[in-house]
Write a structure and sequence with these properties.
By secondary structure, the chain is α/β, with parallel strands linked by helices. It has a single domain, classed as HUPs (Rossmann fold), CATH 3.40.50. The chain has 6 helices and 5 strands. Strand 1, helix 1 and strand 2 form a beta-alpha-beta unit. Its EC number is 2.7.7.3. Belongs to the bacterial CoaD family.
């Protein structure tokens, strides 16, 4: 059985992320979506909120599981018994960083391979950062994120403004 990990912060999950999940879930037997809880960053959503949203938007996929994690990706991969890391590339600018991470992960976890998928053209510009910025100014995010995520974004931004 081929088990892969698609790691990320998913803060919030976008249609670009879902595109990579959908396509990679057809390639592997099981796709573990690893939701990184990185204490060095200040995410808009807690890890628990991100996991909840991801579970809601991936309900139609039988071979996708959502698991939060902290620490090194290679340690998480070993714990999950995964042999493959899936990474999405939007543009050539992503490649240099992703290649460096891939080589580092391979050095730390020999036998752990990385597969890059380019995002579908309609999502090549899309990032969680852009979506959060649009939401912060009250813009419509419906073409970038699923409805449930859009509602959560709107509620989160409303709460931030009232603080």
């Amino acid at each position: 059985m081929l088990r892969a990990i698609y790691p990320g912060s998913f803060d919030p999950v976008t249609y670009g992320h879902l595109d990579i999940m959908k396509r990679s879930s057809k390639i592997v037997d099981e796709l573990v979506v690893g939701v990184l809880n990185n204490n060095a960053k200040m995410p808009l959503f807690s890890a628990a909120e991100r996991v909840k949203m991801l579970k809601e938007v991936t309900t139609g996929f039988d071979n996708i599981v959502i698991v939060p994690f902290e620490g090194l990706l290679v340690d998480f991969a070993k714990k999950m018994e995964a042999e493959l890391i899936i990474r999405g590339l939007r543009a050539i600018t992503d490649f240099e960083y992703e290649l460096q991470m891939s080589q580092t992960n391979h050095k730390l976890g020999p036998g752990l391979e990385t597969m890059f998928l380019t995002t579908s053209i309609e999502y090549s510009y899309l990032s969680s950062t852009t979506v959060k910025e649009i939401a912060a100014f009250g813009g419509d995010t419906s073409q970038f994120v699923p409805e449930v995520v859009g509602r959560e974004l709107k509620d989160k931004m409303k709460a931030k403004r009232s603080v």
